[in-house]
Design brief:
The protein is an all-alpha fold and about 140 residues long. It has one domain. Helices cover about 80% and strands about 0% of the residues. Helix 1 runs antiparallel to helix 5 and helix 4 packs antiparallel against helix 5. The longest helix has 28 residues. The N and C termini lie close together (about 5 Å). The relative contact order is 0.21. The model has no long low-confidence stretch (mean pLDDT about 85).
Length: about 140
């Protein structure tokens, strides 16, 4: 299977699992993490959350998996080596940091810890699933 098709297939699974983590966090905390809202705000259309979700889905299924394929050579020099799962986890961590820098809006204090925890878990699960799926589809 083509490496880009493998990555996109893994990205579909990873985006689905990440969405489930975010849904679980909303059920547990009774607060929204606001990923689509944050993305819509970053895209300049803060009142259109559906556009934010569409960008979230497109980036998770198409953009980030393709970037992951190209980044694998760079990530091979870091801890985790050529292991796609380790590279996926590191990639997810990098996406989390990028999300915190670009997507975090105003948060109330008690929710900050839960926000950081669930967004970190969501991004690590995304990276793990992306790397695992990419490796398994080889």
């Amino acid at each position: 299977m083509n490496r880009f098709l493998r990555a996109i297939s893994a990205g579909l699974a990873a985006t689905t699992v990440m969405s489930l983590v975010f849904l679980f966090s909303q059920v547990q905390t009774r607060q929204q993490l606001g990923a689509p809202e944050a993305i819509a705000r970053f895209a300049g259309v803060p009142e259109h959350h559906i556009i934010g979700f569409a960008i979230f889905a497109a980036a998770g299924v198409l953009l980030w998996p393709v970037v992951f394929v190209f980044a694998r050579d760079l990530l091979a020099n870091l801890p985790g080596g050529r292991d796609a799962v380790g590279q996926g986890l590191l990639f997810g961590l990098l996406l989390w940091v990028l999300f915190l820098i670009l997507g975090t809006g105003e948060l109330t204090w008690p929710f900050v810890i839960l926000y950081l925890f669930f967004t970190l878990i969501g991004h690590l699960v995304y990276g793990f699933t992306l790397g695992f799926g990419y490796e398994r589809l080889a």
